[in-house]
């Protein structure tokens, strides 16, 4: 428990994994219209795209800013990531080497309606988020790198990113206190700056 950095990385990594599984579940259990309404809800009678949703629309080649102006086909393209469960490369992490978590099955609760899949836990310091935190040059660079992390492939073989899942801002919030190095001291009393993983 040298610093809070490993905990922040663990929380961010696992939040992204949880969001991905939740998105797969909602896409499997909802029709296009309700799924779109959930992603772009009416607030006080007005529907708006968030900045992260506008980035997704741009990547999809949809140049519209009014959520109600999308065609049914565009709404489906926007709302469905169509993640291929056999092509997920984003694992959960834990801050220890536990050999019995190297292969697990998730989704066994009755509330998951039979949508189980095999996955695994990695050790926290091996998370791509830890590498980004360690190597990023500033907050904007870290944000861009987090947004472009590929977490899975869709059923057509296209990459699905953290930004596609709408997670970039949430990841940044969890990591904000880990951006700066921590001032500590060695056993001899010498000042030491410790940053990120091992």
Automatic annotation (TrEMBL):
Keywords attached to this entry: ATP-binding, Ligase, Nucleotide-binding, One-carbon metabolism
Coiled-coil region: none
Organism domain of life: Eukaryota
InterPro entries xrefs: Formate_THF_ligase, P-loop_NTPase
Keyword tRNA-binding included in the entry's annotation: no
MF GO annotations: ATP binding; formate-tetrahydrofolate ligase activity
UniProt xrefs under Pfam families: FTHFS (PF01268)
Protein name from the UniProt record: Tetrahydrofolate synthase
The organism of origin for this protein: Biston betularia (Pepper-and-salt geometer moth)
Highest classification ranks of the organism: Eukaryota, Metazoa, Ecdysozoa, Arthropoda, Hexapoda
């Amino acid at each position: 428990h040298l610093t809070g950095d490993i905990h922040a990385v663990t929380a961010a990594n696992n939040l992204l994994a949880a969001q991905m599984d939740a998105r797969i579940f909602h896409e499997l259990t909802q029709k296009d219209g309700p799924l779109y309404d959930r992603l772009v809800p009416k607030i006080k009678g007005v529907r708006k795209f968030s900045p992260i949703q506008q980035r997704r629309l741009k990547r999809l080649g949809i140049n519209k800013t009014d959520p109600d102006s999308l065609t049914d086909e565009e709404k489906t393209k926007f709302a469905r990531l169509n993640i291929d469960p056999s092509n997920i490369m984003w694992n959960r992490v834990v801050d220890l080497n536990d050999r019995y978590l190297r292969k697990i099955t998730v989704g066994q609760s009755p509330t998951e309606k039979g949508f189980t899949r095999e996955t695994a836990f990695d050790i926290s310091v091996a998370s791509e988020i830890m590498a980004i935190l360690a190597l990023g040059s500033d907050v904007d660079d870290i944000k861009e790198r987090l947004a472009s992390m590929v977490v899975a492939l869709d059923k057509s073989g296209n990459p699905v990113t953290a930004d596609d899942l709408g997670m970039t801002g949430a990841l940044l919030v969890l990591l904000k206190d880990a951006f700066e190095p921590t001032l500590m001291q060695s056993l001899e009393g010498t000042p030491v700056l410790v940053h990120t993983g091992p």
